[in-house]
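Handout, page 2. Input:
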Amino acid sequence: MKNRLLFGIFLVVLSCQSTPTSIITEVTEAHAEAIALTNQQIEQTGIVLGKIAEHDISTYIQVTGKVDVPPQNLISVTVPYGGFIKRMNLIEGSHVKKGEIMAELESTDYIQLQQDFLENKSQLNYLKGEYERELELTQKNLNSKKALQKAQADYLSTQAKVSGLEAKLAMLQLDMPKLLEGDIQRVVKMPAPISGYVTQVHANVGAYVNPRDLLFQIVNMEHTHIELYVYEKDIPNIAVGQDIMCSIVGEQNYVPAKIHLIGKEIGADRTVRVHGHLVNENDESKFLLGSYVSAKIAINAQKVLAVPTEAILDFQGKQFIFFAEEHADNVHFSILEVKTGIANQQYTEVFIAKDKQQEKIVIKNAYALLGKLKNGEQAGHAH
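Output:
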């Protein structure tokens, strides 16, 4: 009678698909025999047996944050001097290599800078000779100190102009050897300062850009990290090196990370920034800059009796485990309600009477066992 009752309960539960709404009302004994399967049936179904064992399980602090990169990996590209964009072919999402030409600009100001540089450079050579001549005459007392001072002032003043113009031209990254040969360049080329992806484009061909206008933004995703916001009350429980499980908000797949730095300032929202590094570099490609993430920070690791999380059947807030009793030609399965405790991605703590802790249980494909009942494939029932 007891077995018929259990069998009926299973059928009601299974009729509700993957999210049962019926409640198992009478499962009170640990080894009420519900179904027996042969070893071949067990192998075909993929059911795996195991034992309850001790595992280190941590409790978690649930936090949120965002994906970020180091400051040196996020570059804003501007021009030091205004000009018209003559050529560019980048769009958002384009990948560029360091040194690759991103755009070409032209302006009469660029030409004037080069012209001024060449003129002052030529004048500098003349003034240097004049200064050296006046210095020699002064040493022989053949001229006045005033003439030497003027020659020196003219020389040093022009030298400063040349140095300043050279620095300005260096900011435009012109080909200086060609310029020193008198080859004035009409077009200024903008090379990419780092390798990465173009995330912003703020110009187009023919547009005039002013100095310091943002043209492009480039991000190098090689050192993606996560910035988490942890409430001040939880800070005493965390430390550098602790494990983090994080995912993009709305996704179920978590990737591992570790705490790298803990901020020293509490923000207006009473949170502290916690900097985490992803454990596997391959996971960096799964995150986009600025994406919101949800994360769990592991704290207070404890050694507890636990079973694989997939071994637990969850119905209406109650948890059940299939126990297995091995015989010569088959295995008898029975079900027991258990109380659960802390859990992580792999294991869940269970509270079971000591005399049952050494018995075998179904640790994989527990739901397949219920499927056997639903499909009428059970080998037999104990009477």
